[in-house]
């Protein structure tokens, strides 16, 4: 576990927990680490919502596929991010989403029940862990509402510009990289890829944006 301390120290789930206590905690929680190849399903739609995942390396995405096979990307997952905690804490019978690795990655899995119910050792830092989990859930709720604001816009143009405005604010600059390629961005915005590409070209021609693959600049 020691080799992952740097990334785990940046994970919001372990805020204000020192390294010594963190190692004890992970052992107490029965945390395990699994490696996944690219495009591997980490959590599958319909499977039991039991584990909380922490991405240690690589990249992944939370996706949803509707009855007609249309894919929507709910969010990207980067090293240090927590995922699956909302469904595990809600104790839903099965996951309504799929989590797929977009690069070879390593994931730490923790049984959510071990977090929500304190152990017999009555570890003092367990309360901090539960507080961090609740705070992370609240943050995820804000991000969910932001996505609703983006995808509820009427046109592809409005969706794209709203998304880019959020990304600019997040990066603190009008020049930034996004975590999606064109198809992934279309899936995230829930629009047609060809229509999205056409709108990006129009915005470039109008001098509103500059773009090169995953890099964008708001003029």
Secondary structure topology:
Elements: H1 5-9, H2 19-29, E1 32-36, E2 41-43, E3 51-57, E4 60-65, E5 71-77, E6 82-83, H3 85-90, E7 98-101, E8 105-111, H4 112-116, H5 126-151, H6 156-171, E9 175-177, H7 182-189, H8 193-205, E10 209-212, E11 215-218
Antiparallel strand pairs: 1-8, 2-7, 3-6, 3-8, 4-5, 4-7, 9-11, 10-11
Helix pairs in contact: 5-6
Brief write-up:
By secondary structure, this protein is an alpha+beta fold.
List keywords for this structure.
alpha+beta, 41% helix, four-stranded antiparallel sheet, 8 helices, Jelly Rolls, 2 domains, 219 residues, Arc Repressor Mutant, subunit A
Average pLDDT number:
90
Main sheet: strands, sense, barrel: 4 strands, antiparallel
Give the CATH superfamily of the largest domain.
Jelly Rolls
Main sheet strand line-up:
1-8-3-6
- Annotation field: number of helices: 8
As residue ranges, the low-confidence spans are none
What is CATH's topology name of the largest domain?
Answer: Jelly Rolls
| Number of spatially distinct domains | 2
Query: What is the radius of gyration computed over CA atoms, rounded to a whole number of angstroms?
Result: 19 Å
CATH class value of the largest domain: Mainly Beta
User: How far apart are the termini?
Assistant: 45 Å
Based on Cα principal axes, name the global outline: elongated
Strand content: 15-25%
Got a strand count?
11
């Amino acid at each position: 576990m020691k080799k992952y301390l740097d990334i785990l120290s940046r994970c919001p789930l372990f805020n204000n927990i020192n390294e010594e206590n963190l190692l004890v905690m992970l052992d107490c929680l029965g945390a395990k680490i699994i490696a996944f190849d690219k495009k591997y399903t980490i959590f599958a739609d319909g499977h039991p919502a039991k584990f909380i995942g922490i991405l240690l390396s690589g990249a992944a995405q939370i996706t949803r596929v509707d009855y007609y096979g249309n894919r929507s990307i709910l969010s990207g997952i980067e090293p240090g991010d927590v995922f699956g905690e909302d469904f595990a804490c809600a104790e839903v019978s099965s996951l309504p989403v799929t989590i797929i690795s977009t690069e070879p990655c390593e994931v730490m899995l923790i049984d959510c029940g071990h977090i929500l119910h304190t152990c017999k050792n009555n570890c003092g830092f367990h309360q901090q862990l539960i507080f961090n989990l609740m705070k992370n859930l609240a943050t995820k709720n804000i991000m969910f509402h932001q996505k609703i604001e983006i995808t509820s816009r009427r046109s592809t143009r409005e969706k794209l510009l709203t998304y880019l405005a959020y990304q600019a604010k997040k990066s603190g600059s009008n020049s930034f990289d996004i975590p999606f390629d064109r198809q992934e961005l279309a899936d995230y915005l829930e629009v047609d890829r060809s229509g999205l590409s056409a709108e990006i070209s129009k915005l470039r021609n109008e001098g509103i944006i500059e773009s090169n693959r995953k890099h964008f600049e708001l003029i």
